[in-house]
Design brief:
Blueprint (H helix, E strand, L loop, with lengths): L1 E8 L2 E2 L4 E4 L6 E6 L5 E8 L5 H14 L2 E2 L1 E6 L4 H15 L4
Parallel strand pairs: 2-6, 5-7
Antiparallel strand pairs: 1-5, 3-4, 4-7
Helix pairs in contact: 1-2
Length: 99
């Protein structure tokens, strides 16, 4: 298991928590919690080691477009970058996020 930590400067605080996905083969779970301030912390626990740069690329693309402010926990079980982006987009739907 590998633990990854990322931090992003963000500008759009969320008002409610969200939970998306399940931990299972080729999938992941995302837990989002509101926080004060303008910093989003992302903690990832993954069984797929050696993909830190891929995670950083996907997350940077997401937070550049959708700068939500939250504490985010991800439990990954081998999700592809496309699945990661899909799940993060589903978080926006649950949060009723508007650009």
């Amino acid at each position: 298991m590998e633990k990854l930590q990322f931090q992003y400067q963000t500008t759009k605080p969320i008002c409610k928590p969200a939970h998306i996905g399940v931990v299972g083969s080729g999938d992941l779970e995302i837990i989002v919690e509101p926080v004060k301030g303008q910093t989003t912390n992302v903690s990832i626990l993954t069984g797929s080691e050696g993909f830190e740069q891929v995670w950083e690329n996907v997350l940077t693309r997401f937070f550049t477009r959708y700068p939500i402010t939250a504490n985010i926990t991800v439990h990954d079980f081998g999700a592809t970058p496309g699945v990661v982006m899909l799940r993060f987009t589903q978080v926006l739907e649950v949060l009723d996020y508007a650009e």
